[in-house]
Amino acid sequence: MSKCHSPRLQAMVSLAGGHYHLSKRKTKESMADFFQADVSLGSVPALEQRTSEAIHEPVQEAREYVKTKPVVHMDETGWREANKRAWLWVAATTWVTVFLIRLSRGSKVAKEMLGEAFQGIVNSDRWSAYNWLRTWLRQLCWAHLLRNLEAFVERGAESQRIGEAILAQAGLMFQWWHKVRDGTMSRAAFQEQMRPVQRQVGELPATTARPPEPVETSSSVRTPYGPSCASRVWNRPTTFGERQVRPGVLWRNGSFGIQSEAGSRFVERITTVVATLRQQQRNVLDYLTEACDAANWDRKAPFDPGQWWPDWPDWPMLHQSPTDAEKWIEDVLAKSDRPRDAYLREQAAFLGIDLPADEAVAVLPTPPRHEHWLELPGTGGWVAYRLCRRPETVLYLWENFSIVCGTLQEMLLAGLIAWELGAPPRAELPIRLDGQDLMTTLRSGETYHAVVGRRDLHGHRDLRILHREHRYPLWL
Fold it and tell me: What share of the chain is helix, strand, coil (3-state, %, to 5)?
């Protein structure tokens, strides 16, 4: 049996305990049975701690990333650390989920995860740790709200009337939201239909009798079911945070907790990495192997285009030679201090891509923040870049756009544009490689407010925008 603890073996040992929840002894036995690897019992926690240090920096990046997002789902569950009561906290976004273990369940930890200056929307239950957030910055969990409304109904009398009225409006809201999710209703139409729902819920009596089980932060209908309730439904179900913390619950129920602070750091870091990579559909073992290898040699991870999208192709697949590609990346790193249109055009020319004219982009309407636009092949992310650079707009490229690229070079350029625009590390901008056929992309089942692309028309390549609400494209 081999006694060499390679980076991949180190990653497998860490995954066995940190994700598959094998005991130290079973981890040792599984390595011997499956891989004929001789790992001593004491080496198992030692390898876990080395992995914990290897992923410390990217986990910190993930925590900072979450603080910048417009919508965050939060939850917490009980934990044990050195036989003391602790809590496992989770903050989940569309592309990144982070965990934290602390001996407190108070607002101090919530502020640590979100930042005291957080200006996004927090989806949570009514636990008092989130009361420091402004009411209009909170979306109460609909699973909890519906249970409370059922309690109103079961009480009878006036409470029953109030509960049934709100449940009826909630039923309409979810019926419409499912259409938005399935692509049969636009978000703009959904928001328009929600206005009378919000108004009718707001016109209910300001106070009513308490439900059978007291509500944690309010005894009135208006407060818990007003601004934090019917006015918002986000891209993720409101139970998303609870689902993300479920593996931690199963780990806790199958063990006696963690016996040291270092062990808690390993748990929160490995669960952060696993949950985030699963969301991005990236291979967890391959990532951990690369991280462990870099740490073992005390070097920084190389420039990684995969920080914007999964399944980045190997350099030999590009039309440039590996040497040229490496030289090009060095040049990019040297010039990446600030966005420069001329510089990006220079890189596009190097890749053989003809970017759209600024005049063509100027006639495009500005999408509202968080409206989902699709940019089709032939534009290389340039349209999204130009729209986001308009001085009157405050758009997040990685929130507002999906970019489909016709070639691998376009894919590279789109990632570079995102980087130049200020996308934080591992922002996971949705960029993918696809064919040139418009209808193939539109039949993918995804929903967009608008589709922008280029197409030959009488020998000219023009930008066009196709709104989902219109039957025919609007040529620009």
Answer: 50, 15, 40
